[in-house]
Amino acid sequence: MEKYAVIVAGGKGTRMGNEIPKQFLLLKGKPVLWHTINAFAMAFADIKIVLVLPEAYLADGKQIEGEFPRIHIRIVAGGDTRFASVRNGLQLVKTDAVVFVHDGVRCLVTPGLIRRCYDETMVKGNAIPVIPATDTLRLITQEGNKPIDRNLVMMVQTPQTFMSNDIKAAFEQEYDSSFTDEASVAERSGVKINLVAGEESNIKITRPVDMLVAEQILGIN
């Protein structure tokens, strides 16, 4: 079965307080996005990668692409929303395949998690990595707020992994503001979502402190 990774890095990362989008910040001497691509390259030598990038940073993506001469990489501009960016990336998936949709700034994803998502998808049709909530949670209501049983809540990660026919069909829907990830899009189209164990270290680089944490984790591995 062919494999595609649609790596979505179309955001500008304003919460980092930096003019350079977070996916291009250097981490251990390489752009954050380089580490993300490398994880997929290590997971599967035959994987095809679609990079979804901001229009103004397509040339930067080409530079990173040049560091992976053995991996088939194509680059496409993102859209105004994550939904639009993912849909742009999916348009380059032309064959039946397993499709990973991954946040470009989740650069600590491991080849093991990627392969686990692939194996689960081959058996159950999709795989959404999650980790348990560890903090106490409260739900905001019209009356105020109330506690939630955290044992009933999971925190969702990527790569969210699907059979190409399912995810491409799901993204033919009109955009809805409730679509916060690919699983919510697929579920709306009738796909039953299958959860798999994610990884605590699979963090999303959002704030400056996340870069410090990532450097420490990379230093250990």
Protein topology:
Layout: E1 2-8, E2 26-27, E3 30-31, H1 32-43, E4 48-53, H2 58-65, E5 72-77, H3 82-90, E6 97-103, H4 111-124, E7 126-132, E8 137-141, E9 144-148, E10 154-156, E11 160-163, H5 164-170, H6 182-188, E12 195-197, H7 208-220
Parallel strand pairs: 1-4, 1-6, 4-5, 7-12
Antiparallel strand pairs: 2-3, 6-11, 7-10, 7-11, 8-9
Runs in which pLDDT lies below 50 for 5 or more consecutive residues are: none
The count of strands amounts to: 12
Please tally the helical runs, counting DSSP H or I stretches of 4 or more residues.
7
Main sheet: strands, sense, barrel? 8 strands, mixed
The topology string of helices and strands comes to EEEHEHEHEHEEEEEHHEH
**General form:** globular
Subunit organisation of the chains:
single chain
What is the CA–CA distance across the termini?
Answer: 30 Å
| Strand percent estimate | 25-35%
Radius of gyration: 17 Å
Helix content bin: 25-40%
The assigned structural class equals: alpha/beta
Structure, described:
By secondary structure, the chain is α/β, with parallel strands linked by helices. About 30% of the residues lie in helices and about 25% in strands. The chain is built from 7 helices and 12 strands. A hairpin with a 2-residue loop joins strand 2 and strand 3. Helix 1 packs across helix 4 and helix 5 crosses helix 6. It is globular, with a radius of gyration of 17 Å.
Task: Offer a few descriptive terms.
alpha/beta, 26% strand, 221 residues, 8-stranded mixed beta sheet
